[in-house]
Structure formats: structure tokens, C-alpha cells
Design brief:
- The chain is mainly α.
- α4 crosses α5.
- The chain has 2 domains: 145 residues, no CATH class; 201 residues, no CATH class.
- 72% of the residues lie in helices and 0% in strands.
Length: 373
């Protein structure tokens, strides 16, 4: 076998290997029910995130940033499809070049015609014709898999956003743990019924863990309203449950404990899908991003609103911090990952806090004015 023939064989094997790897990447991203994206989606999403973030950082106004980031997930989803098809076309161009003896431009032209099934360029010989048919089949398979991916993804998105919308009724916008407990307090026997909320959100956390690790692109799909976010809703709910356990007088409520555990495990596994680092076994007295002064102010607000607060606030703070430390890091880093809207104790902790704090202050002032009225 001469050297040129050897190169053709190597090129053919390499091309077939790339096609197989592309199909495997598509199956892992679309069909396999676990966080296993593969190289092509990871490179595509990471590259687009860098481009969008560079663009977003030029704007101080949050709503403008939100409008830009709202396009990230749809663009990334389309880019993943284009990337799979493009890599497949390149691989088949290499195969045609090695098998047919055509020039490289002619091989690229034949591959492009085959993958889009236009048939404007063809080869009447058996093997090139068979390869062209196989490329058309691979291209159609990738498109079909992505199309079948959309209903499941949007169904999971709808379930997630239903929970976020319902929480706005209970916790305000932006969501706040203290607002949630105060609203339940104002409802006759509301605090006695709050245990149902913990059960519902334990299921919500289980659902987003499954869906957002199976379809990681869902993490970046933003709520229909720019001021809502699944991350800030999760943070408010977890903080509220932790306050309920540690600082509010009430009968024993194991559902709140289970809800928090389901919550931080869910956030951690979503963080794992994106390689976000965190301490898997933090010390109960470890540092958290919420200061004791902020926590005391929240307790004072709850007490003024009629919530029965425990007497030993030092012990209550230690208990609350012991819960918060389990999800503090992943919560803030997920908020940063998706450019979450400003919300107390979540996205207002980010390095970009200047404009966020001003936005939160305006929202807090309007909310307080509404309560006085």
C-alpha cells in the first residue's frame, strides 16, 4: 500500500470516527436521561456564554441585560444543532475526499448537498452515492432528535415556571423569605398551612433536578417576566424554610427539613452539570454571604409583622446559618451563571452588586409603600 492510499484509509477512518462521535454527542445531549452533554454542546454553550457576557457587561440597566440574556438559550439551542450538522458535514467532506478522489472543494460541495438533502450535487458511483445517502440520513436523524427534544424541554420549563409564578403570590417580586412568612401570617391560620408549601417545593426541587440535569440548556431559559427567576425563587423558598425551622415558634415540622435538603441537593447536582465548585460537606458554622446584621433586620421585620419569633436569637442564627451554608455557594454561583434578576440574599451578593442594589432598593421602597397604603 503506497503512502497516498494509506492517508486515504486514515482519513476515512477519522471521518467515520467523527461522524460516530457526533451522533453519540447528540444522543447523550438529547436522549440520555442524565447530565452528559459531550464536547460539542459544551464548547458551543461556553463560547456563546463568553460572547453574550461580554455584550451584557456593557449595560448597567438590568432590563436591557435581561432582554439580551433572554436570547441566549434559544440561540444556544440553535447553535448546538448547527454545530452537530456542521461537524457531520466536515467529517463527510473528509470521507468523500478520501473515497471519491475528488478535490477538497468538490468534496465539501457534495457533502453540503447531501446533508441538507437538496441533491444539487451527486455522484452516480455506488460507494459515493451510498455515503451521500447515509449523510442525508444522519442529518435528518440529528434534526429529528433535536425536534423531539423540544416538547419535553418546554414541558419541564412550564412546570418550573408554574412554581415560580405561584411563589410570587406568596413571596413577592423580587421574592423574599420574610415577605413569604409575613404573608402567610396575615392569612387566617396561614402559618399552620405553610407545611403544604414545603411539600410542594420538595417535589419542585426534585423535578428541576431531573429536568435541568437532563436538559442543562433549561438552566438558561429565563422566565416570561424579566423580574422572575427560578434561582431567586429557590433561594427565597430555602431561606424561608430555614427561617421557619430556626427562628419561628411552631410545632415540629419535618417537611421543612426535607424541603431544604431536597433543595440544596438539587442545586448542587445542577451545579455539578456545569462544573461549579462548592464544598460538599461544609461546617455548620462556616461562612455564609448573609451577615448577622441583615439576618437581624429580617427577624425584626418578621416580629413587627406579628410572626412569633423565638427568644434565643443567637441560637436561631446558628441554626439558620447551619442550613444556609449547605446551599449558599451554589445558589450565588448559579445566580451569577444565568445573570439572575436582583433579589435579596441571592443575586444582590454578586460582584455586580452596585446596579443590583439600587434596583432592589427601589423595589423594596415600592413594596413598603404598598404595605403602608
Amino acid at each position: 500500500m503506497n503512502f497516498a492510499r494509506l492517508l486515504d484509509v486514515v482519513g476515512l477512518i477519522a471521518g467515520l470516527g467523527i461522524v460516530a462521535a457526533t451522533l453519540l454527542s447528540t444522543l447523550r445531549a438529547v436522549v440520555l436521561p442524565r447530565a452528559s452533554q459531550g464536547l460539542i454542546p459544551e464548547v458551543t454553550i461556553t463560547s456563546l456564554r463568553l460572547l453574550f457576557r461580554a455584550r451584557v457587561r456593557r449595560h448597567e440597566d438590568y432590563m436591557r441585560r435581561d432582554h439580551l440574556m433572554a436570547m441566549f438559550a434559544p440561540v444556544a439551542l440553535l447553535a448546538m444543532l448547527v454545530s452537530w450538522l456542521l461537524v457531520t458535514a466536515v467529517a463527510y467532506s473528509l470521507i468523500f475526499f478520501c473515497v471519491t478522489g475528488r478535490s477538497l472543494p468538490a468534496s465539501v460541495e457534495l457533502s453540503g448537498s447531501s446533508i441538507v438533502t437538496l441533491g444539487t450535487v451527486s455522484d452516480s458511483h455506488f460507494w459515493p452515492s451510498l455515503l451521500g445517502d447515509s449523510e442525508a440520513g444522519v442529518g435528518l436523524l440529528i434534526v429529528a432528535l433535536v425536534i423531539s427534544y423540544l416538547p419535553s424541554m418546554y414541558s419541564a420549563f412550564t412546570r418550573r415556571e408554574t412554581g415560580v409564578t405561584l411563589l410570587e403570590v406568596r413571596a413577592g417580586n423580587p421574592p423574599s423569605a420574610t415577605t413569604m412568612l409575613l404573608r402567610f401570617r396575615r392569612i387566617d391560620n396561614g402559618l399552620a398551612e405553610i407545611t403544604d408549601l414545603w411539600r410542594q417545593w420538595e417535589q419542585w426541587f426534585a423535578d428541576i433536578e431531573e429536568s435541568h440535569t437532563t436538559f442543562p440548556i433549561l438552566v438558561f431559559f429565563r422566565s416570561p417576566h424579566g423580574e422572575r427567576s427560578w434561582v431567586t425563587a429557590a433561594g427565597a423558598l430555602l431561606d424561608g424554610a430555614a427561617l421557619w425551622i430556626s427562628a419561628v415558634e411552631h410545632p415540629a415540622d419535618p417537611n421543612a427539613h426535607l424541603c431544604i435538603r431536597a433543595g440544596f441537593l438539587s442545586l448542587r447536582r445542577i451545579a455539578d452539570a456545569f462544573g461549579i465548585p462548592y464544598d460538599p460537606d461544609p461546617a455548620p458554622d462556616g461562612p455564609v454571604s448573609v451577615s448577622r446584621q441583615e439576618w437581624d433586620e429580617a427577624i425584626s421585620e418578621m416580629r413587627d409583622g406579628g410572626v412569633a419569633v423565638v427568644e434565643d436569637l443567637d441560637l436561631a442564627w446558628e441554626k439558620w446559618r447551619g442550613w444556609r451554608v449547605n446551599y449558599d455557594t451554589v445558589l450565588l454561583r448559579l445566580a451569577r451563571l444565568i445573570e439572575a434578576p436582583p433579589a435579596p440574599w441571592v443575586s444582590d451578593r454578586s460582584p455586580m452588586g452596585g446596579y443590583r442594589d439600587r434596583w432592589v432598593s427601589r423595589r423594596t421602597a415600592r413594596r413598603a409603600s404598598g404595605r403602608r397604603r
